[in-house]
Amino acid sequence: MTSLRIGTWNLLEGGLDGTDASRLERQIDLLAELDLDLLGLQEATWRHRGAEMLHHVAHRLGMTARVLTPSNHHACALATFVRERPGVRVVGEAHDTSGSWWHALAHVEVDVDGIGTFDFLNTHLAPSSEDQRAREGQQLGLYKNCRAILLGDMNAVPATDPLPSPDDTDDGRAHGKRDRRAAQAIARAGFVDVGASVGDTTPTVGHIEPGKLAYRCDRIMHNNLPVEHVTHEVISCVDNATGSGHDYLSDHSPVVATLQFGAAAEKAA
């Protein structure tokens, strides 16, 4: 049975604290333990060090294919990685950095023996505008008839998870995070939210500090792929480094999913 392990993580300022990259190194340590085939990172805010840091992360993780897609705002680039090996290869790229995205949509075409070719999409939806997010969700409807894996920081609640209570936070900005329009548009395009499919509503953001809106912001989805079985896990990112100044490696938790493809996938390929 063919399977892929997939991860997504918003690094929080690229894992950097000023010029100090020690938090990033500990983030890479955590990622290395996850044995991922596909990885999408958001907030790869490495600026002038972008190429250097991209290749460093790829080298440490054994990811032979890597690409840094620039963001339209805040230098929040997207870093996308594929562990190429016999039977797994990158065959194309079609990134969208047009102004219709607040950040961008990274798009890598991957071919896997037993599965065939599919689009691997990494994104970071708009942070504060509900209307912008809704438009971005609608744009992902263009992949309705495509074989795709989509992941990233969706910056609002999922389509079907219970809505966090307004009493859970006094942060006025959190009101917009309850807007489901982007998630609903993505669901209408046929994307299956792996976390929702297994009933895992573990928050990936907002659960660290009191008074923040805790919800499942970071998600992995698939569309038009003959997936037989999935697993889903939100990974703890407690930072145990002495004197690090952080209790957590990021304000977001990493998410990992395993997709297993059976005989139907092999026949289709």
UniProtKB/TrEMBL annotation:
Top-rank lineage group of the source organism: Bacteria
Matches recorded under Pfam families: Exo_endo_phos (PF03372)
Molecular-function GO term, any one: catalytic activity
Biological processes per GO annotation: GPI anchor biosynthetic process
GO cellular component, one term: membrane
Ranges annotated as spanning the membrane: none
InterPro entries the UniProt entry points to: Endo/exonu/phosph_ase_sf (IPR036691), Endo/exonuclease/phosphatase (IPR005135), GPI-anchor_lipid_remodeler (IPR051916)
Residues covered by the Endonuclease/exonuclease/phosphatase domain: 7-252
Region (Disordered): 157-180
Name of this protein: Endonuclease/exonuclease/phosphatase domain-containing protein
Organism: Actinomadura rayongensis
